Amino acid sequence: MSGLPEGWAFARLDELADINPKQSFADDLDAGFVPMSHAPTNFLDKLRFDSRPWGDIKKAYTNFQDGDVIFAKVTPCFENGKAAFVDGLPNRIGAGSSEFYVLRPATEDISAKYLLAVIKSRDFLLQGAANMTGAVGLRRVPKQFVQNYTVPVPPAAEQTRIAEKLDALLAQVDTLKTRIDSIPALLKRFRQSVLVAAVSGRLTEEWRAENTGINPTEQIETILKDRLSSSKSKKAPASHLKNEEYEIPSTWCWVSLDSLAAKIVDGTHHTPTYVGNGVPFISVKDIRDGVIDFTNTKFITTEEHAELCKRCHPEKGDLLITKSGTIGRTAIIATNNEFSLFVSVALIKPASNLVNMEFINIALRKWIGEIDVSSRIVGSAIKNLHLTDMKVLAIPFAPLTEQTEIVRRVEQLFAFADQLEAKVAAVKTRIDHLTQSILAKAFRGELVPQDPNDEPASVLLERIKAQCAAAPKAKRSRKTNGDL
To answer: Which segments of 444-470 does DSSP mark as H helices, in order?
Structure first.
């Protein structure tokens, strides 16, 4: 057929390998047992196994041995690429899930690792998935598809060269994946370090040296006066916890979150009556990545919203923080649209227009990301952060002009981290496709150079046919669940 390199030929998989061959060994021999969970999805990952006596696993399980290739036949394991070259089993023998197919090369001139590359190829996975049979959720690749799947076969020597090249290249791909996969954790630590530097004064150390003589005491006094007039409660604000203080610049001072807030309150403690359309009702799931997502909110009536607003009325500029279940997600309200809150979300209203809620948000995010929040969280099934614990949170108060500069710098650094994260995601996508690109080059004969002195694949296939014809016919075995 056209399209193949010189010396290559096409063959069916069942011409290149025995499918699900049987084997017999002494019952007391140690063997490897491989449940589906032990099968890898990456090309080069090793097959894991548990040691068991052969007599315990030889029946009702798929048999295999070192040198075989196994792969999942059932959805979604097949589509996920669960497959492996079998190696390192106790006594070189093993058995595993009945949902495995086994390929045993028909001759030593057929490379098992080349067969693994076939099984891992996009074409095999797509065609296998398209030919699955069975009920939804229990669909399997039929044995007939595996038997008849057509494979481009290089000469034996080239198969070996391809397998060796794949090992080398895909090891490099795995190294790249490992490095790329480590970057999100590094970025998370970077963001946390930025928050720490922001609220400790290190981020604006040089700026502060050029802007001396600013004392925040008068600003705090003004905020406290505004708080007295804006807050319905005339109680003095709660004092901050002294043991949460750390070193800050001499021009800064410590205040409690309660001192800067006209109100710290959570949403309704009862489940409202939901309606098809109305006022959005926000819970933990709707706050993510610093914003409120109204896409999949539930709704309540305007009458119930009006009743809930008597206690907790979210308004533009207020700060939200999740306090139950997933704790510590924050968002500053950026809309004038009305909505209500569930008990899992707390609302912090600024006590004055002098309060920089962006700076408070930075302090809260640093607090959640660094201190031992578990000491403040109660509950076993659902974790909760009490409002009283939030009120006594120690907030480092910088002069307002410096707070503005801190917010600007944090936003700039976070934007840089966001851009890098987007680039990393794009690179990760390309790397994820790289394995299939390499396999495609292998099957086009472009991965390693051809050698005109190699024995043509057609001669190899004729030899395999002659060997099969000369071999004694095996007795027809009873059909099992594995032969679907």
So the answer is: 457-470
